[in-house]
Write a structure and sequence with these properties.
- It is a single chain.
- The chain is an alpha+beta fold and 148 residues long.
- The protein is built from three helices and six strands, in the order ααββαββββ.
- A hairpin with a 4-residue loop joins strand 1 and strand 2.
- The chain is globular.
């Protein structure tokens, strides 16, 4: 499935931004300030501040923070596509850091490349406040039985 040819949303039900943001409480996403901001027919979007929590020692957005945002978006979007008795877990992620970001807010958008029964692949594009591409990431997820 590509976003250009998606005829229907891959998401099951009607996910709520409030519910997604509530899942971040007590996790790595909360102290980094990651907030889900939009759910579209075939995408999930979130923002993250570029500040002392997310910068490396040279004053730039830390690549690891970008990857955490990307994995958060890809994994969350993937989990919105599976039945209640299944979950998605990341098995591979990569990121190309294309532009330095020094301050403001970055926005990540996850879109599906493949949503299958056993695996999913999502592309996450992270842009600065001016809409310039700062990072592009791809995550592969395994669809497994929900523990418990």
């Amino acid at each position: 499935m590509t976003s250009d040819h998606a005829s229907a949303s891959p998401f099951r039900g009607a996910p709520s931004l409030d519910a997604l943001n509530a899942l971040s409480e007590g996790t790595a996403m909360q102290p980094l300030g990651i907030v889900f901001t939009e759910i579209g027919a075939d995408f999930l979007r979130a923002t993250m501040p570029v500040d002392a929590r997310t910068k490396q020692p040279y004053g730039l957005l830390h690549g690891g923070a970008s990857v955490l945002l990307a994995e958060t978006l890809g994994s969350t979007a993937g989990n919105l596509c599976v039945p209640e008795d299944r979950i998605c877990v990341g098995i591979e992620i990569n990121a190309n850091h294309l532009r330095a970001v020094r301050d403001g807010v970055v926005t990540g958008t996850a879109r599906p490349l493949h949503v299958g029964r056993a695996t999913q692949v999502w592309e996450i594009r992270i842009e600065d406040a001016r809409g310039r591409l700062a990072c592009v990431s791809r995550i592969t997820l395994a669809v497994v039985d929900r523990p418990g």
